[in-house]
Amino acid sequence: RFMPRLKLLLQNATSPDLKSLRGKAIECITTIGAAAPAKLRPDVEPIMNILVQILRESNNGVMDPADPQIAYMISAWPKMASVLQQDFVPYLQMILPMTVAAAELQPEVVVVDSDEAKEQFDEKDGWQFMTLTDQQKFGLKTAGLQEKATACETITSFARELGEGFAPHAVNIANVMRPLLKFYFDESVRQSAAECLPLLLSSVRGHGENMLLSLWQIFSADLFSACEHEPDRHVLCSLFCAVSDCVDVLCTVGFDQQTMARLMEIILTRLREHFARHQERLAQKQEEDHDEDADEDLEMERESDEQVLGKVTDVLHALFSVHKANLLPFFNSLVPYFTQMLEQGRTIEEHQWALCVFDDVIEFGGAESVRYQAYFLEPMIAFILDSACEVRQAAAYGVGAMALYGGEAYYQACISALPRLATACNLDVDPADYMSCCASENAVSAVAKICRNLPEGLLNLGDILPHWLSWLPIVNEEEEAPAVYEYLCLLIMQNNVHILGENHSNLPRVVRIFAEALGSEVLADCPAVVDQMITILKQVQSSPETWQAILSMLTEDEKAVIDKILA
To answer: Disulfide engineering: 425 pairs with which of 144, 251, 471, 543, CB 3.0-4.6 Å?
Structure first.
């Protein structure tokens, strides 16, 4: 009903005094598209052709910066791109120059005497002032800042939606975005610039390592400098997120020893700052004239610091996943800080993130991680039963990593962790509490990894496996489920008496576990494991009497899952 009228309005409201009206029509179309993309699809190409025609009629595609239609058009492009995908690429040649021009807009700034600020600059014209000294003020004309921020978001959206289709513009846009990493007048501009850079790398990934390296070298120094000097904690999170995303795309490309050392230096600086800010907050709380109303501000500051710490660990995770044990020499300078975070009295988030870092040391450092045992081993095992589920999960994952990747040097540590893991598996957690369930399921997975990877002579599987079976199913932790159910299938195929029971008395329990697992989404990305489970179910089904007896013990929902999977 509305779209034909809006298109008609775009086509016919051509006089200069109707530009604002046409802009509002563009906004309405975009709003409809955001609410119902399917409704926009049949009309999006005709609408794009109308908008491009407007551009062509505007001084060879160069619109007056004061034209009210510009802001509406720039806001509309991302929605059009998300609908058209690669069919949007041909329009970039026409619309990107206008969008880049808006992104490169430089605000007017002045430094004037206090009296002069009042006399010559009107707040109604968009001027805002802040006091520098008793006699001077710094002034910023905010008009156009919103358009600049929107243009940056739009360009980032193009890179995200169009992928390789945006590759021809990657170098140009990298040179537009890199100085904006330090555009201190607007946080959202800096965040968009940070988000855009790894997307540009991703767009050229199919063009070879030389292209990747060339593009990385354009902005890497600016990105690292921004990570080092950014004052806003939320923007800093975006910057570190950009670094980890770049590592994911680049892998080993562009990360020589000098680059690695530079990045570790930045992380070290931020860790020192983290501890210094923590001490400052403690000192403020202990002051005699401390205002308890300020505690809320201090808590918000703490939360921001913990968010930055989380992004730092994401960077380290990305680096470890690519460079593995080769990263350890660079990591050494950071060890004292993450070790300190494991101490009693530190925050939940510090415990969690420090454990995650040492989890990566074990997983990707393998046997070479043994040199760090003295720093993390005792607290990691203790934290298996921490009151915070996030900490329990990270600790249990680490013990599982010891069994899977650590080798012989970790055997005794894994054995000593089993009683605490068993207690963690038996915790009474609310099924609706996802994080608590994941913590327990990580403990179940850790026990499986220990049982599967340690020599049989070191463990009494007859005592462990019946308990382990009782802790199944796991239906939340998608990362751990494949290993758990693959091990369960292996034990069943080996006719393991501790799992199947005497005379296969545990078969109903096993089928119920399969039904609950297959009825969840936890194995959605693991077809090989699902196939193993189906093979086992069909073997049981081949004995009609046994099969019917088992089905009689299942709920209707469990029967429905089994029927569907075997159909």
So the answer is: 471
**Alpha-carbon distances of 356 from 92, 309, 361, rounded to whole Å:** 42, 11, 9
Mean pLDDT of 39-64: 75
pLDDT at 61 over 60: no
In the structure encoding, which two tokens stand for residue 512, read together? 């119920």
Q: How far is CA 309 from CA 302, 346, 395, 518, in A?
A: 11, 13, 18, 37
How confident is residue 128, by pLDDT bands cut at 50, 70 and 90? confident
Comparing C-alpha atoms, which of 230, 233, 258, 263 is closest to residue 246?
263
Measured distance CA(285)–CA(304) in Å, rounded: 18
Q: What angle do CA 199, 204, 209 make, to 5 degrees?
A: 120
Backbone torsions φ then ψ of 149, nearest 5 degrees: -60, -45
Please give the DSSP secondary-structure letter assigned to residue 431: T
pLDDT at 172: 97
pLDDT surpasses 80 at 37: no
φ and ψ at residue 109, rounded to 5 degrees: -130, 145
* The pLDDT of residue 125: 67
Q: Are 397 and 442 in contact (CB under 8 A)?
A: yes
Please spell the DSSP secondary structure of 92-116, one letter per residue: HHHHHHHHHHHHT----EEEEEHHH
Packing angle of the helix pair 233-250, 209-229 (nearest 10 deg): 160
Burial of 149: CB neighbours in 10 Å, binned 0-12, 13-18, 19+: buried
Bridge partners of residue 369, in order along the sequence: none
pLDDT tens by residue, 508-525: 999 999 999 999 989 999
Mention every residue, 6+ apart, whose C-beta is less than 8 A from residue 355. Answer: 342, 376, 380, 383, 391, 394, 395, 398
Yes or no: say if 331 and 319 are a contact pair by the CB < 8 Å rule.
no
What is the layout of strands, in order, in the sheet containing 109-113? 109-113, 136-141, 127-131
**Amino acid symbol at 138:** F
CA nearest 234: which of 152, 347, 148, 311? 311
Contacts of 17 (CB under 8 A, 6+ apart): none
CB count, 10 Å around CB of 31?
A: 13
Angle ∠(485,487,489) on CA atoms, nearest 5: 70
Residues ≥6 apart with Cβ < 8 Å to 551: 559, 562
Can you list the positions of beta strands (E) in 8-167? 109-113, 127-131, 136-141
Which two three-digit tokens encode residue 427? 């915790």
The pLDDT-based confidence of 288 (bands split at 50, 70, 90) is: low
